[in-house]
Amino acid sequence: MDTMSKKTFIKNYQSKYRELYGEEVEFGSNQQRYEALGSLIREMILKISMDTNKRYNSTKEKQIYYFSMEFLLGRLLGDTLLNMGMLDVCREGLKELNINLKDLEEWEQDQGLGNGGLGRLAACFLDSMASLNIAGHGCGIRYKYGFFEQKIINRKQVELSDNWLREGNVWEKRRQDKAEIVKFGGDVKVENVDGKLIFHHINYEPVLAVPYDTPIVGYRNKVANNLRLWSAEAVNNEFDYSSFRRGDFLKAIEYKNSVELISQVLYPEDSFYEGKMLRLKQEYFFVSAGVQSIIRHYKKHKGDILDFDEKVALHINDTHPTLVIPELMRILLDEENLSWEEAWRITTNTVSYTNHTIMSEALEKWPVDMFKKLLPRIYMIVEEINERFCKSLWGKYIGQWDKISSMAIIADEYVKMAHLAIVGSHSVNGVAKLHTEILKKEEMKDFYYFYPNKFNNKTNGITHRRWLIKSNPGLTNLLCDTIGESFIKHPTDLLNFEKFANKTDIQEELGRIKLENKMNLAKIIKNKTGIIVDPNSLFDAHVKRIHAYKRQTLNCLRIMDLYNQLIENPNKDIIPRTFIFAGKAAPGYYLAKNTIELINSIGEVVNNDPRVNEKIKVVFLENYGVSLAEDIIPATDLSEQISTTTKEASGTSNMKFMMNGAITIATLDGANIEIHDEVGDENIFIFGMNSREVLNYIENGGYSAVEMCKEDKKLERTVGDLINGKYCQDKNAFKSIYDSLMIYNDEFFVLKDFESYLDIQRKVDETFKDARMWQKMCGINIAHSGIFSSDRTIKEYAASIWGSTLLYKNL
Ligand code: 26W
To answer: Which residues, renumbered to this chain, carry the PTM N6-(pyridoxal phosphate)lysine (predicted)?
Structure first.
């Protein structure tokens, strides 16, 4: 890519600043300077976007659209500069103007339009698609308020709204000219014209879907794909004057408000489904707008509708966008006048589906009444899909009514979205090997038996551009100095680093880089919490959504046990540790919120107890998100991935930590298994039950938490500490956690894995004592992390699901 010279950059930046603010940049605030830089870069990207689109339109290469309810992009400035090859020029140029690029970057609000893993994966995929020169675009919702901002007040989580658009968003461009109408409610009138049924959707409520486009720039390859996020507006932006005249003024306002509600806020629940009408509205809203605009674009460029499936792939990120299937059917049937068979062939060939969770409480199903009322025409189509599917089941399972009704799309007055997604797509994939096996053998086994060829695995990945090159420049420099730069384009070349992991000077260098990152994090911890932590202590990070299955409680119990031991035996030889927690709890998830309170309470006791606080510190960092993760991950020694085996579909922070040279302490769950396969027993700390044992307990019972406690006095005592006032005067403060373990029989086997967790933690201490040994392990982890780049994942999707035209010409 032709990059700018420093001189040109300075000139352009100064003139951009003048144009925006009518004064010289030296008088500006950092926020204004950020805005000016953002808009300068945005303009430069415009040219790349135009060229990319021109190329896509003329080569007619297959276009991939990734439909996702969530895109957790974080900040864009730094990563965009990196990908454009302008990071150095920009940093140096600004320096000449006495401006620190970092100070400007901090002014950018995180784009937090996602809950966690699923949304961040979508963001990593966009980066990889653009960087691999694949014509892949995002389609989602432009929530006015993203994931809530978390504050800790009195040790408890408090939720504040995330008004991320308050200062505007330099990266997006509103495209009023590309707006679509989405229709809700009303009735369907069926007309018979010469024996053909024509469906008229009448009396509906129209909603204007206005797209906002954000360019996604590939790594130094002159590609800019598009992320299109839809915003809901009243069709007549002004009040409806006819109803106004009739005195129905309030009705007009009501309509406007109810429409704008659709894209108002991201639902903050993940892994827990709530059958809210507004959520169903959100789902249909962006799906319908997206599919309509894709078809409009396709036809505008002279695409033949019968070849649609050869030129377009629509991917659905979990079941949330499943309505892509009936919506595409609707357009093909009602607007393109295709036969059912043709429409069905095109739809199923076009759509593919990724499952991200086996937690049954996260499975989406909509009450038939609600569905029918909100989407009458779509419901008719889903009914027809269901009938045809059930008929095909009858052929195979003669007389087996139970099986047929358990597989049906509509049953027990519910529309089951996962069933619709499987039936209406040509590919169903899980996100790590174990997860896919569980889908095939357990969760979706009937469907796997019926459609064995649809099922496949695509182990998740993370973009090494954001999560290594951008967030860990120290390590990146060391890698470039030792193995050269090829890993940037070919991340599996990181393997070349393995031989360096043995070298003393490299081990020392790795230690030095880590220490520097830890000093940076220590500063952040001090600023945010007032707690002073020792950068030479072992940084042990457990950062992710707070959820019972992720077992923050197991970590808490272990710290509580360690605290008891240190009190009893002040000379106990342990490695000083800083326990770092961060993560948000869904606002309605009491147990998870109680866990946050527990962590903070343990912190208050431990950090203020002079008998132990030279040895251990417990820190909870509020408002976990992409930007905070970028500070925590490069500074971590030990990565906690301790979910109940079988429950974590993949996990992706495990990969980020590994790539930054943290050692993983883990159950053999999700992608931890594949990390273990990569680095071998000696370079990871594995503990706990395996999937067979867990599934066996779940299926056959036989586990008793009370018995576990009876057998292990230390465990009994630690669990007892939850309700004896040790960590909070109010003895009932952590009653819900205590009850989840002792009364509800510890659904996630925390107590069962406790002993083996303590054992392996002792091994961690032993290993950490030998600094050289530890750094060697870090080096090996880094060397083997390349396979977890989302570039690998995306190549697999492109080759075996999307059938996209692969043009690796810039690689
Ligand atoms: C309907 C409410 C709801 C919302 C979001 C249910 C479920 C979700 C997501 C599927 C939750 C999620 O983010 N799952 C995570 O997806 C990651 C990317 O594949 C995996 O790495 C994580 O293991 C999985 O928990």
So the answer is: 656
Distance 115 CA to ligand 1 centre (A): 8
13-17, 240-244, 677-681 — which is least confidently predicted? 240-244
487 and 621 co-located in one domain: yes
CA angle 432-433-438, nearest 5°?
Answer: 100
* Ligand 1 centre distance from Cα of residue 270 (Å): 6
Closest-lying ligand 1 atom to the alpha carbon of residue 118: 13
Whether residues 446 and 549 share a domain: the answer is: no
Q: What angle do CA 537, 538, 540 make, to 5 degrees?
A: 135
Expressed as residue numbers, the domain containing 545 is 473-689+750-786
CA-279 nearest atom, ligand 1: 1
Q: Check whether residue 432 and residue 371 sit in a common domain.
A: yes
Asked if 512 and 399 sit in the same domain, the reply is: no
Mean per-residue pLDDT over the chain, rounded: 96
CATH number at residue 610: 3.40.50.2000
Query: DSSP state, 582?
Result: E
For residue 48, is it within any domain? no
- Indicate which residue's Cα is closest to atom 21 of ligand 1: 651
Find the residues whose C-beta lies inside 6 A of ligand 1.
115-118, 121, 269-271, 273, 318, 356-357, 362, 364, 431, 460, 648-652, 670
Establish if 109 belongs to a structural domain: no
Residue 809 pLDDT:
41
Question: Which residue's alpha carbon is at the smallest distance from atom 12 of ligand 1?
Answer: 118
Residues 399 and 436 in one domain: yes
What per-residue string of b and e applies to 434-459 under the rule 16 or more CB within 10 Å gives b? bbbebbbeebbebbbebbeebbbbbb
pLDDT in tens, 684-728: 999 999 999 999 999 999 999 999 999 999 999 999 999 999 999
pLDDT computed for residue 242 by the predictor: 58
Same domain membership, residue 521 and residue 451: no
Query: CB atoms < 10 A from the CB of 341, how many?
Result: 8
Residues 358 and 426 in one domain: yes
488 and 453, same structural domain? no
Q: What is the best residue among 317, 356, 550, 642 to mutate for testing ligand 1's pocket, by most ligand atoms within 8 Å of CB?
A: 356
Q: What does the pLDDT look like over 33-61, one tens digit per residue?
A: 999 999 999 999 999 999 999 999 999 89
Number of domains composing the chain = 2
Note whether residue 67 is domain-resident.
Answer: no
Of 121, 124, 267, 271, which is best to mutate to test ligand 1, by the most ligand atoms within 8 angstroms of its C-beta?
Answer: 271
Residue 301 alpha carbon to ligand 1 centre in Å: 36
Query: Phi and psi for 95 in degrees, rounded to 5?
Result: -60, -40
The number of the ligand 1 atom at minimal distance from the alpha carbon of 121 is: 18
CA pair distance 233, 569, nearest whole angstrom: 65
Nearest to 30 by CA among 133, 93, 139, 103: 103
Is 297 a domain residue? no
CA of 118 to the centre of ligand 1 (A): 5
User: pTM (2 decimals)?
Assistant: 0.97
Gap between the Cα atoms of 542 and 750, Å rounded: 16
Expressed in angstroms and rounded, the spacing between residue 583 Cα and the centre of ligand 1 is 15
For 341, residues 6+ apart whose C-beta sits below 8 A from its C-beta are none
Task: Determine the distance separating the centroid of ligand 1 and the alpha carbon of 664, expressed in angstroms.
Answer: 21
pLDDT at 608 over 90: yes
Catalytic residues: 356, 544-545, 550, 652, 656
In ligand 1, the atom with minimum distance to the C-alpha of 435 is: 23
Which of 71, 118, 645 maximizes ligand 1 atoms within 8 Å of its Cβ, making it the mutation to test the pocket?
Answer: 118
Residue nearest to atom 5 of ligand 1 (CA): 270
Beta carbons of 269 and 159 less than 8 angstroms apart: no
Alpha-carbon distance 682 to 782, whole Å? 14
C-alpha–C-alpha distance, residues 69 and 796, integer Å? 22
Looking from the CA of residue 119, the nearest atom of ligand 1 is 13
